[in-house]
């Protein structure tokens, strides 16, 4: 019986770890440290559950242990960790209450569940299956909230497989015959294992599909930025040639002026003015990576009739990788241009602000937007027709912010404002 309980609790702790790793951002602890912390929580929680009688103190200690585990391993807000802790506890308690109160449906006296023996062990197995179904459904709800596609098969599997396992487990309970009870318990454990493997496989298939789509998105974005770098290089080469040829242009204009060939003088002047206007830049922070990406996006925005304004104050080196700042600003400005393009009213203007203060940096974009169709279930949807290969921009922004222990704040006022705060990145 003890071996079965240990197996069930290990199953529980592994599922809890999977859920926490998906919902929270891990700190940079090594794998061994993570395993030690989770095993420590499991050991202490198991002692409190099976050695001591349930009480208010038991509840508080369990909640404190789980919350402490999250504090050690994850870098999310205290509020998020507290809510996740309460969710785990309430779900576990609810599953046990459902088993205890539902015994009458199967003609079982629930007082027998309080006595040590096979029946109590069966009740633990059934409650774990109910708890597992709640976890599975909750994860699908979270995916749906995150705008990750969830198919009807996923919803059906999350309910049908655990419920079927519960029915089979209950059908194997025999109150009068104790022979071969070990075989029945092994069968019940196999049901739990089947549920876990099914959940794991469904999760892996979904995650692999998301990873493939995201990798394809990143590849396209890399090619895009390579093209941007090439075009910016050509532009600076043109400007160098223009400056190098400036003396000859002055002489040519003087020649047209002396010959009173005003038409050719006008054409020469227009050509020079066009090159100078082309050289006007929105971003002049002194940081090549930031300036290049903003100036390039400003050119693209101008082609769509959108004005871009930049307010930049970056006065020191940053422990911020060029590819991260490029991807962060690129996705922010792409989203802002896409949203502004849908707006008919003037002025169609995007404001971008990059401001360093102490060891921290604020990156902010502000743009007009159409309210209808931009938000759903607390998340923000892509307006592109091929939704399967788009919609990763905000996710990439959030991942980069999490990498530097920052946060993303979205405000819907008169304009749509996205603020990215990165902490402790100054050198």
Layout of helices and strands:
Elements: H1 2-23, H2 31-50, H3 56-73, H4 78-101, H5 118-145, H6 152-171, H7 181-244, H8 246-258, H9 262-278, H10 288-303, E1 307-313, H11 322-341, E2 349-357, E3 360-367, E4 375-376, E5 379-380, H12 393-403, E6 407-412, E7 416-422
Give structural notes.
The chain is α+β, with helices and mostly antiparallel strands. It has two domains: 2-216, no CATH class; 282-427, Histidine kinase-like ATPase, C-terminal domain (Heat Shock Protein 90, 2-Layer Sandwich). Helix content is 64%, strand content 10%. It has twelve helices and seven strands. A five-stranded mixed beta sheet has the order 1-2-3-7-6, covered by helices on one side. It has a two-stranded antiparallel ribbon with strand order 4-5. Strand 2 and strand 3 form a beta hairpin. The longest helix has 64 residues, at 181-244. The chain is elongated and about 115 Å long. Mean pLDDT is 76; it is low at 376-390.
Keywords, please?
alpha+beta; two-stranded antiparallel sheet; Heat Shock Protein 90; elongated; five-stranded mixed β-sheet
Helical segment tally?
12
Trace the largest sheet across and list its strands: 1-2-3-7-6
Strand fraction: 5-15%
Task: Briefly note the structural class of the backbone.
Answer: alpha+beta
Domain count, please report it: 2
Q: What is the number of beta strands?
A: 7
Give the mean pLDDT: 76
**SSE string:** HHHHHHHHHHEHEEEEHEE
Rg on CA atoms, Å: 31 Å
Cα(first) to Cα(last) distance is: 58 Å
Low-pLDDT segments, ≥5 res? 376-390
Q: How would you characterize the largest beta sheet?
A: 5 strands, mixed
């Amino acid at each position: 019986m003890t071996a079965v309980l240990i197996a069930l609790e290990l199953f529980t702790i592994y599922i809890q770890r999977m859920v926490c790793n998906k919902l929270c951002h891990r700190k940079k602890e090594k794998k061994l440290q993570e395993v030690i912390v989770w095993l420590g929580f499991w050991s202490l929680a198991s002692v409190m559950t099976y050695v001591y009688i349930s009480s208010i103190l038991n509840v508080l200690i369990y909640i404190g242990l789980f919350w402490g585990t999250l504090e050690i391993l994850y870098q999310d807000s205290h509020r998020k960790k507290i809510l996740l802790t309460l969710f785990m506890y309430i779900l576990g308690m609810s599953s046990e209450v459902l088993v205890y109160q539902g015994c009458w449906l199967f003609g079982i006296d629930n007082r027998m569940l309080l006595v040590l023996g096979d029946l109590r062990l069966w009740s633990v197995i059934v409650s774990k299956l109910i708890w597992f179904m709640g976890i599975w459904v909750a994860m699908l709800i979270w995916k749906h909230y995150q705008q990750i596609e969830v198919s009807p098969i996923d919803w059906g599997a999350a309910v049908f497989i655990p419920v079927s396992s519960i029915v089979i487990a209950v059908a194997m309970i025999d109150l009068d015959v104790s022979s071969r009870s070990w075989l029945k318990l092994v069968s019940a454990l196999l049901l739990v294992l089947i549920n876990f493997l099914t959940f794991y496989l469904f999760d892996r298939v979904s995650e692999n599909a998301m990873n493939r789509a995201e990798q394809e998105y990143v590849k396209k974005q890399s090619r895009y930025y390579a093209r941007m770098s090439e075009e910016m290089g050509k532009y600076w080469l043109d400007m160098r040639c223009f400056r190098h040829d400036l003396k000859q242009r002055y002489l040519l204009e003087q020649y047209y002026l002396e010959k009173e060939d005003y038409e050719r003088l006008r054409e020469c002047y227009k050509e020079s003015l066009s090159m100078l206007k082309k050289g006007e830049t929105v971003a002049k922070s002194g940081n090549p990576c930031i300036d290049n990406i903003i100036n390039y996006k400003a050119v693209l925005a101008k082609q769509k009739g959108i004005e871009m304004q930049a307010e930049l104050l970056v006065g020191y080196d940053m422990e911020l990788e060029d590819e991260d700042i490029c991807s962060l600003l690129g996705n922010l400005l792409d989203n802002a241009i896409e949203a502004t393009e849908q707006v008919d009213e003037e002025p169609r203007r995007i404001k971008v602000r990059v401001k360093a203060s102490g060891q921290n940096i604020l990156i902010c974009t502000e743009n007009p937007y159409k309210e209808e169709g931009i938000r759903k279930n607390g998340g923000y949807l892509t307006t592109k027709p091929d939704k399967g290969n788009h919609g990763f921009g905000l996710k990439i922004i959030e991942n980069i912010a999490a990498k530097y222990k920052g946060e993303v704040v979205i405000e819907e006022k008169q304009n749509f404002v996205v603020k990215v705060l990165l902490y402790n990145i100054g050198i």
